[in-house]
Each structure stands twice: as structure tokens, then as C-alpha cells.
Amino acid sequence: TGVPQGIIPCAHGGTSMAQWHPRKSSSPHESLYASMIRRVQHCGGKVAGMLWYQGEAEANRTDGRAYTKDMKNLVAAVRKDLHATALPWVMVQLGRFIRPGALAWDQIREQQRRLPDAIDHLAVVPAIDLELEDGIHIGGDGVHLLGRRLAQAMAAMGAVKVLTSKDPRDAMVKPITLSKVRLEPGPHSTVHIVVEFENVVGSLRAGSRPMGFAVADETLSTLPVRTDLEKNRVVLRMVHQMHEVSQRALHYGKGNDPLCNITDEADRSLPVFGPIALGKPRALTPWIMTPQVSEPQGAVSDLKKLLYPDDMAALRLVGQSFAGSFCDIHSQIEGRDAVYYFRCMIECPESMPLRLHMGYDGPVKVWFDGREVYHDAKGNNPAHEHLAAIALRATAGRHETLVALDTNGGNAWGIFWRFERTGVSATQLRDRNYLLPRILAV
């Protein structure tokens, strides 16, 4: 054209990876991919790099599984068709989306974060901290900042040159990346999560209280009591104990619309990530939070002699829902010296070895399908999540677990309980390729 080109716009809103697939390149008038290649060729056939902002359409449980594969295919095809095997590619990690309901937003963000490990000469720029103009689109000020971040990433890859400046926002540094996560013992049996990052310009900072981190399992997300920023690392101070935290996962920017405000001195956000396992992966069910609970039964002098109830109806079991991971009935106990029963039904899709993990703060006895499998006469406060691990063998089909809790002279609060499938290989755990018991509503 004889006119210097800055950006060749080829974007089309609301499109999916399928619509950009190279196989649809037969006609530039019918294919987004072919139209993009045609525009580049019309402007001389050579570009310094590619900017990519897409992924919302794949944020569902079906299409999201192939996102990494589709991106690898797309990048390879563009580099081949433009005769640039190392063409720099900078993409935006999905930002916020103000919409209720469970979407696979986290799944796409995590795949995007990991793409630089799968594709050479590719960088990912976060947008999670930017203000929105509506339910999904970044506002004008945020777009300006995002453009600066994209330019920084392109400059760091050698694709473009920028004017030298003392402003840290002009630093030619690759986007911030997660380096390592480790657990450290804290005071009074608590634990600290130390998160380290690379490519931080200056020190990490937040305009107010640092926000965005969560520690979660399948049913519960908890926030750190305190978040400290120390140069290129974040220290999350938890009130939980080591064995509790090690069975959960770390997230930054979890959910569709998280509050994240941590940046470096170049105004660049931490990347959204998670789940990052904080301990060895295990095949655990969610905590049981909807069991049946009995009315108070008469106190017994020796729980060891307590037999499986002959008349289940006499217990007057009623389904209850509890918040979090703890079945808390302290308000029902009201100082009573009594026995309460908790009942749960599960359904196993196949035969499997199980382990019932329990925590309790009073003497307990446990039956599985009417057979006694555990007894502890010394249960006392506090109730730890993994106080007992009871080995079980379950066939395919439905099974009943019944727990009798002595109120410990009226001082008990309740129980934790959930199942773990044992005998699962490391590969299955990594790929989450295993079946678990289904907790049935009762």
C-alpha cells in the first residue's frame, strides 16, 4: 500500500475456535481464517506478530476440552501459511464475565495460562483486573492498559521496538508467570502458602487489601486470613492446619467475576490460575453436606456396645443441609447428653475400594451396610477433617453409611465425612480419569 501498517484488524466478535479452523480456508468470503490470511497478503504478506483475544465461546464443558489442541493447530497453520515458523503470538487471557451460573471460565483461563509451555514464541497477557463496560466487555481505560500490556509482551519477544523510557510501564518484560507454590508451617499449627512469580517488574502491589486468591476443594472455597506481598512472591496466611490445606487447590481469579487487584509496578496483573494442587492429588468425593440426622436418642454408658438400630423409623431421621464441609448440629444438641445418628446413601458405578475420612468431637461408631466398621470412644474437641480413615470395599450399587455420635456430655458439635477412592494410579489422578461414588439426596 505504500503506507506503514500498525495493526491489520481481522477480528470478528462472538466467534468460536471452530469458525477460525484452518480447514475452512477454501474461500476468503466464507471463512474467517481465509479472510485473515488474505488481508495479510494484501498488505504485503508479512507481519511482525499476532494478537489474539478469543475463548469465551469455548467456556463450556464440551468445547473447552479441545481448546489447547485447537490453539496449537491454529498457531501452526498461521505460521505455515505466512511462512514464519517462529511468528510471535500474544494472546489475552479471558477476563471477567458478570453472569450467574457455573461456566467453564476457569478451565479456559487455565489452558490459556499453560499455552506457552505447549507453543513456542507465545505469551499470555492477563485482563482479570480490568474494569468492565458491561457484562463482559472491558471499558475504554482498561482496553488502553491492555493494549500497553500486549505491546510490552510483543516487545519482550523481539517482535517490535518501543521507545526507551524510565516509566516502568514501558518495561520490555515478558508477562508475569507463576513460578512455584509451596506450603510452610505457620504459628499455632497453621499453614502459610507461598506463591512465587517470575518476570515481576519492581515489586507486587495492590491499591488496597490484596485480593484474588482462594483455596478450594469440590464444595468449599476459603480465603486467606491475610495476604502479604513480598517483592515477587505472595504469602497467604491460613488459619487451617497443614493436613486440611494440603488436600485443597489454590486459585487466583476463581469464578466468572472474581475481584483481583494485584499487579507489579508496570501495571501488569498476575495471571489467573487454578486449580493448583497443594498436595498429592487424591480421588475424593465432595464433603457430605446433606445427610439425614436423627432426633436425640438416649445417652449410652458405653458406645462400644451400641448395636445397629433394629428400627430405623424410630430414629426419626430428617434430611438436613449444612454449609461448608462440617455437619454442625451444636444448636440442636443444646447441652444434651445424648446420641445422634447421621445417615448417608451413596451409589457406586462399579466395584471399588474406598476410604471413609471422618472428623468428630465426641465418641463415634460407624456402620457400613449395617456392618460395624469403626468405633472410637475417645473423640473430643476439636473435630479435625481427617481424624479417621476407615477402609471399605464397595460393590456396584447403593450403600448406606450410618454414624452414631455421642454428644460428649453436650460439648460435641458434629462431624466431617467424605469418601476417597483408593487404588487409583498417578496417571488417572493427573488426568482425573476415574469414577467416584455419587452421594445421593435423602
What keyword list fits this structure?
about 450 residues, alpha+beta, 8-stranded antiparallel beta sheet, 7 helices, elongated
* Total count of strands: 26
Distance between the termini: 72 Å
Number of helices: 7
Biggest sheet architecture: 8 strands, antiparallel
Helix content: 10-25%
Shape: elongated
Radius of gyration over all CA atoms, rounded: 27 Å
Mean pLDDT: 90
Query: Strand content of the residues, in percent?
Result: 25-35%
Summing up helix and strand content along with how strands pair, one would put the structural category as: alpha+beta
Structural topology:
Blueprint: H1 32-42, E1 50-52, H2 67-81, E2 89-92, H3 105-118, E3 122-125, H4 140-156, E4 177-185, E5 191-198, E6 205-206, E7 213-216, E8 221-222, E9 226-230, E10 233-238, H5 242-245, E11 249-252, E12 262-263, E13 273-277, E14 283-284, E15 292-293, E16 297-298, E17 318-319, E18 327-328, H6 330-333, E19 338-348, E20 352-360, E21 364-368, E22 371-376, E23 388-394, E24 397-406, E25 414-421, H7 426-431, E26 438-440
Parallel strand pairs: 1-2, 2-3
Antiparallel strand pairs: 4-5, 5-10, 6-12, 7-8, 7-11, 9-10, 11-13, 14-25, 15-17, 15-19, 16-19, 18-25, 19-24, 19-26, 20-23, 20-25, 21-22, 21-24
Helix pairs in contact: 2-3
